[in-house]
Amino acid sequence: MPNTIEINEHCLSITRNLSNALQYLFERNERRLWIDAICINQQNDVERGEQVGLMGRIYSWAKKVVVWLGHHADSSELAMDFLSLLASGPGDTDRLEWLLNLCEPEYSHHWKAVYTLLHRNWWKRAWVIQEAVLA
């Protein structure tokens, strides 16, 4: 049975994944969201084509872009913390040695967590890299 939401007195079928994301996001705070699967008529090729042309502006104008990777898994927090560590590492001169240190066996569970995170369904969508870069 498909999930549905009501928008302006109209019922709209949505995926289970989108339903999970909306439930999670609205449990924590009421917010205004622009969701392509809802805001673009996916059945209308002309509208969809026009909106795809606007995606760059839509994402670059956003104050914040939220990506729903799915429900929290055991290693999600470890993966996100490790990715933050990788992004904030030392400058160019010390970086190679620092990265080589992170290849030691004691960090294998960190790398496995990142691997698991990067194999979630969101990454299989065609436009995710473009969306992330534009955001």
TrEMBL record:
Cited Pfam families: HET
InterPro entries: HET, HetReg/Transcr_Mod
Residue ranges occupied by any Heterokaryon incompatibility domain in the UniProt entry: 3-131
Protein name: Heterokaryon incompatibility domain-containing protein
Organism in which the protein naturally occurs: Paraphaeosphaeria sporulosa
